[in-house]
Amino acid sequence: MIRDCTFAECRNVFPELSEICRSDAWPPNAPIVTLGEDGKPCLCYCLSFVAGTPVEGGDRLLRAVDTYTVGQEVMVAGMDLHWTAQPVVFNGRTSVGRLSFTIMVTYEDGAVAVTADHLFLIGGRLERADRLTPDDTLTSPEGNPVPIRGLHVGEYFGSLNHIAVSLEKPDDELNGRMLNTNGVVSADYVVQVMARGGEALASGPFAEERPVIGSPEYVARYGVASLQAPDFVAGFQNPPIPVARHDARDLPMGVFIPASLTSTDIPHNACS
Predict the structure, then answer these.
(1) What pTM did the predictor assign?
(2) Which of 51, 197, 245, 269 is the most exposed place for a label (fewest CB within 10 A)?
């Protein structure tokens, strides 16, 4: 079985990885085989935010992550949530495709859709998207708790973006690696790559064993809502991500397809 690459191994091929992920031959979340430092194959991935996810720019305005170019500023912080403007050094985009095992998180008046191992700031630590529960609270850029309205697994038709203001290994406080993603705090691409590669982070992702969203254990504990369409209600100030009412080949870009409409495979170990 081919192991996941470490952050350092993926960093060495970031430019090539970005080009491969942009190629029509590679769908979102695809594993890309590269050569590890031990001379053996390992896997890097096309991961992170779905295109269109609002990220706060240096001018304090939210704009779609895929519209940022290298050199353009975004607001970043560490675990202390002290925000500064820093220029983007890397923003890669995958080709358009159906992204399997996407997690949609809804809260207050917003929603984001991310890959399973995207990391959110909750309770002063990081947690994978696919391990969130209805009992968790996300974190606002000001450090306030943001109650989760719903957690849903399914597919997303579109592309992914991975963004960072530095390709170097972050410090223990993850300074410059937290982003304001549509009103909630989550980690950048570099931190996600590190965590997926099994590297320990002082911020503490995987603080406890949790069932994967949509798994039988998760459904038994939290109900079937995670497999169904979000129950959007009036009051959203920001339009939520469009949700399909049926599964079809001609769905428009940027649509989330709930697991109840697809044959989404819920991995027992969440893509590890």
Answers:
(1) 0.82
(2) 269
